[in-house]
């Protein structure tokens, strides 16, 4: 091959790759979701094919079931939850009574309960005296602004999310239908042999299943427990508590249990000792569920990513991509942590095993 021909081919690859990258960049999120969901659902497709169903029809059946039973209901749940939380935060942001009235007059407000709780602790310990009412309100207002920006940006993007949902569903069907072609494409790109490619594919499938299954199921169970307890005790609204708890359950290290403890503190500072004890116990039970159910579901996967690394990836994903980043961050972190050693091992020079 002449040097001129080689340069032309390299330029062609660079130009085409950059062009494709620019064109598909608005759809990175749904493509990632479509690809990772297809990996998680691929074992189910193999079972359908083993029963004599063609790959095309198996992919169509799985995509249809996923769309109408899981995807669309989750979309409307996320929309309703985002709007509800945004409205609540906007009410708190526009509420001027925190600056025009004294703390003692706000006996029924949740924000007041936080202020009073912190003030009691700061009055008890001298080194916390800097936490006066004005500073506490300032810090809470800043936190409210951060949360409001997060949920408001998600609410504004709802029409875009619907379009991206359609793209994700199309990608899901396409990846399932053309699974063999996708595998051959990546095999040719990476240059891996059949053994390495099988190992890599196995990790992707297991990690995808682990991220979606362990997080959604565990988060759903924990959120239902916390929201039901808070709602029955008359301390908070079921749907908002469920939605916020579900989001927090995706974040490693934090989880859903602290939500129950926060409401237990609120109940305690409202002199509702019975509710505080119940919610404290509920928080412990929620933590036990997380420590039992999540590892059991995670056993269906093989990700070895440490909790601290997973936490950083999830927070980074949320900052970059909003609500979808909670999944994307953990997916990318799991893939990177579990597959980079394979690529690194392949890059290392092979030892000559020939005996001279």
How would you characterize this protein structure?
With 356 residues, the protein is mainly α. It has a domain of 152 residues. It has 14 helices and no strands. The longest helix is centred in the N-terminal third of the chain and has 40 residues. It is elongated and about 80 Å long.
Furnish the topology, listing elements before pairings.
Elements lengths: L2 H22 L3 H23 L4 H40 L2 H4 L9 H15 L8 H24 L1 H20 L1 H12 L3 H39 L5 H12 L7 H13 L3 H26 L8 H15 L3 H23 L9
Spans of at least 5 consecutive residues whose pLDDT stays below 50 are 96-108
CA distance, first residue to last residue: 34 Å
Query: What profile does the largest beta sheet have?
Result: none
| CA-based shape | elongated
Helical content band: over 70%
How many whole angstroms does the radius of gyration measure?
25 Å
Tally the beta strands: 0
What letter string, H or E per element, gives the SSE order?
Answer: HHHHHHHHHHHHHH
Judged by helices, strands and strand pairing, the structural class is mainly alpha
Number of helices: 14
